[in-house]
Design a protein that fits this description.
Blueprint: H1 2-16, H2 22-32, H3 37-60, H4 66-73, H5 75-88, H6 92-105, H7 110-119, H8 124-153
């Protein structure tokens, strides 16, 4: 049970600070808790989504920061943001697909996508469902892949 909470905490930290690699932590955790793979997947997924909600929330309030607001008024930044707004506007499946792919693959980086989702005012439920599914599937692949590898090595 302690490992569950450790993975949850590390996952929140990883979501907020991308230099912490939750996939490596999960791989190590699998070696310490064989038979508890699902608990590790759930802990990592919940932790990541808790952290990414903060990135999303930050995106919804990004205009309040004077420096960011000045940057967003520059023609290139404004054009880029307008382009993304046009792509997302009225296309929930495109938006959901992009969020899912980013959550699963890490490309584009999910922290960046979370902020962009907040800026574009993507409904929170779309962000949560796609992120949870994408991150959960990603961590399932990592945990069960590592579990299989450790089983094969022993």
């Amino acid at each position: 049970m302690t490992l569950f909470w450790s993975v949850l905490g590390a996952s929140i930290g990883s979501a907020l600070l991308p230099l912490i690699n939750i996939e490596i932590i999960l791989t190590g955790a699998v070696s310490q808790a064989p038979g508890h793979e699902w608990a590790l997947v759930i802990a990592a997924t919940i932790g990541q989504m808790l952290g990414k909600i903060l990135w999303y929330w930050g995106g919804t309030h990004v205009e309040r920061a004077p420096w960011v607001n000045r940057q967003l008024q520059k023609p290139a930044a404004k054009a880029s943001l307008d382009k993304w707004h046009e792509r997302a506007e009225g296309r929930p499946w495109f938006t959901a697909g992009l969020l899912f792919v980013s959550a699963f693959s890490g490309f584009p980086p999910y922290a960046v996508t979370a902020v962009l989702a907040g800026i574009l005012r993507v409904p929170m439920w779309i962000f949560l469902v796609t992120g949870t599914l994408g991150r959960g599937l990603r961590f399932w692949v990592v945990v069960f892949g590592a579990s299989s590898l450790f089983g094969w090595l022993s």
